[in-house]
Amino acid sequence: MFRALINLFFPKVCLTCQLQLVDNEEHLCTDCRHSLPLTNFHLTQDNFIAKLFYGRAKIETGTALLRFEKKGITQKLIHQLKYKEQQQVGTFLGLWLGTELGKCEDYANIDIVIPVPLHKKKLRSRGYNQVTKFGEEIAIALQADYLDNVLLKVTNTKSQVTKNRFSRWTGKNDTFALANTQKIAGKHILLVDDIITTGATLEACMLELNKVENLKISIATMAIA
After folding, report:
1. How far apart, in whole angstroms, are the C-alpha atoms of residue 89 and residue 80?
2. What would the pLDDT profile of 102-161 be if each residue is shown by its tens digit?
3. Beta strands in 118-174 (DSSP E)
4. Do 59 and 98 touch, CB atoms closer than 8 A?
5. CA–CA gap between residue 193 and residue 182 (Å, rounded)
6. Within a 13 Å sphere around the CA of 61, how many CA atoms are in the beta-carbon half?
């Protein structure tokens, strides 16, 4: 009765279409959930993510849960996560993808999950890294450790939201550094982020991580443009 009273005055709404959720719905309404454009990359032998980074950075395997299109449902969902403090989106997507990857042999030997970091100024401004909940849920599903103190961002770049694809590529000057490298030496890590556009940010992260001896790197993101 108390929950019904709360919902009467503060109804839960779908994070993408803003329609009121019914009792058995969480975060998204049924229509929006079924409209999410899944990639299913982790179910295919011909790995698109590996091809994307071919000749740029060595990876074992990679996947993205959703396809990202401008003004599409995925963009609305991630916008809620990054700019509306709806961190449950990260939990929702991480639990979903983590469950999927837990069934895949390619991800069975992941030792550590590492998020693409935010610069300390942006982290202080936003209050959270939008990838944290996503990565934590995947780590739980894969029975891996979650470490956010190994890969550090040392430059504070401007938001990429208003830039087109070419501008993002040419203007990308992210610089990363490593700490506590003894924790990841000889391990298979899963590098997680929100969106792959050009792949420049992930490439910069991997080039830094590949300085560690005998390290294997795979990738998992919420979406790919």
Report:
1. 8
2. 999 999 999 999 999 999 999 999 999 999 999 999 999 999 999 999 999 998 776 555
3. 145-146, 151-153
4. no
5. 23
6. 17
Q: How far apart are CA 157 and CA 188, in angstroms?
A: 28
Residue 13 CB contacts under 8 Å (≥ 6 apart), including other chains: 19, 20, 21
Residue 62's SS3 state is strand
- Rounded Cα distance between 125 and 50, Å, is 34
Indicate the domain borders of the chain. 1-35, 37-224
Which pLDDT score, from 0 to 100, does residue 31 have? 93
Over residues 7-14, the mean pLDDT reads 69
The answer to whether the CB of 79 falls within 8 A of the CB of 86 is: no
Classify domain 37-224 by CATH architecture: 3-Layer(aba) Sandwich (3.40)
- 153-189 confidence digits (pLDDT tens): 998 776 555 455 554 444 455 689 999 999 999 999 9
Tens of pLDDT, residue by residue over 26-60, are 889 999 999 999 999 999 888 889 899 999 998 99
Residue 191 token pair: 């590098």
Q: Hey, what amino acid is at 22?
A: V
Distance CA 132, CA 9 (A): 31
